[in-house]
Amino acid sequence: MKLRAAIAGASGYVGGELARLLAKHPNIELVTVTGNSSVGETLGSLNPEFNNYSDLVFVENTKENLLGHDVVFLALPHTKSAEVAAWLEDDVLVLDCGADFRLESAEEFEKFYKSSHAGTWAYGMPELLIGSSSKQRENLIGQKRIAVPGCNATAITLAFAPLLRAGFVDAKDLVSTLSVGTSGAGRNAEVNQDPVLDSAFAYQVGGIHRHIPEVQQNLEKSSMAKVSITFTPVLVPMFRGILAVNTGKMIAGADEMSLRKAFADAYGSESFIEIQPEGSFPNTADVEYANKVQIGITIDEASGRVVVISAIDNLVKGTAGAALQSMNIALGLSEGTGITEGEA
Hints:
Blueprint: E1 3-8, H1 13-22, E2 28-34, H2 43-46, H3 63-66, E3 71-74, H4 81-85, E4 93-96, H5 106-113, E5 122-123, E6 129-130, E7 134-135, E8 145-147, H6 151-166, E9 169-180, E10 201-202, H7 212-223, E11 229-235, E12 242-250, H8 256-267, E13 273-275, E14 293-300, E15 305-312, H9 316-331
Parallel strand pairs: 1-2, 1-3, 3-4, 4-8, 5-8, 9-11, 13-14
Antiparallel strand pairs: 6-7, 9-12, 10-11, 12-15, 14-15
Helix pairs in contact: 1-9, 6-7, 6-8
């Protein structure tokens, strides 16, 4: 018998992506989608490419409509999940795709989100390196409340963590510049109402992006040291994807062979992380609709910096795929169950 699932906020891009992936999950049945601005419309009216669940009708996002499910995904705007989560029973598995429960520091949350901190849930990045030997995966087993990572945070964290754990880069000199697809801005963003985005532009520049404290929190778990990062996202004319150029000042004694060994040791057994061969680097087209991260590594000898290029689909490995991956672990299912490539 399949578990019953609901998506709160299913009218957005993340909610639609969750529905697309759940349509292929053998153990989960999506039975409820909420979206206050779309009540009475069908899921297929917003996602005409869907072959499954297209006839599901949006209902209001109320406590009554969300009770009685085994799994509830919250695909709501930041700072809106906490109220909805409080409606749900303790034995329901709840996965928040927003930022409400990612940060451990109330001070940092209030600084970056201008809202009260609602608490901290188990962090849904199974591959996150913790200290010298463990990963976040083991902390997700049996959990009932999971905070899904931010998409930018995923692209940056997985690129830097092996280097920091091995001590090959200066934790106080990390730089990331990300080319980000417009879907990351949300369905209602002005940029997604225009027929074509014909320019690239940086946004949330100067250390104010809300994923910065999340990245620092992650990398400090891997490095066991304070981390400082300069992070600049750039919106570019593509719908899906993040291409992150990550650089760090190399510690004396490191070379490309040792860097590659650090990544092999960290991710060699991971199903959803691919390390590119020497001299090869990822692109966003190769990760579209896939729950995977591709990583390329080299050294800029002239500047003494390590360069790590990472690519993800922001809607899949960046959000919805990570949610299903974490859900599977929490439920005791095989981690890759139902996470497949290609459109529904």
